[in-house]
């Protein structure tokens, strides 16, 4: 149990450190996907469906939303 409590912050730090060289487009797509996955899983679980499918659909929608938001902010 103590090893697990030590491993979680180390993994989180390494994961977040990997995002430092990402472009703004990649960062917006990643954050959109993460937010979409969480929202999709939550909504699907509340509605009584399978949260995995809600997370997949929400992540896909979030990535597209993040990409479109980035293009809008850049004026393309």
Question: Could you describe the 3D structure shown?
Answer:
With 76 residues, the protein is mainly alpha-helical. The chain has a domain at 22-74. It is 84% helix and 0% strand. The chain contains three helices and no strands. It has helices at residues 2-17, 24-47, 51-74. The N and C termini lie far apart (50 Å). 18% of the residues are buried.
Structural class: mainly alpha
Whole-angstrom Rg:
15 Å
* Element order: H for helix, E for strand: HHH
Q: Characterize the largest beta sheet: strand count, sense, and whether it forms a barrel.
A: none
What percent strand? under 5%
How many angstroms separate the termini? 50 Å
List its traits.
single chain; 76 residues; mainly alpha; 3 helices; 0% strand
Question: What is the compact description of this entry?
Answer:
The chain has 76 residues and is mostly helical.
SSE layout:
Layout: H1 2-17, H2 24-47, H3 51-74
Helix pairs in contact: 2-3
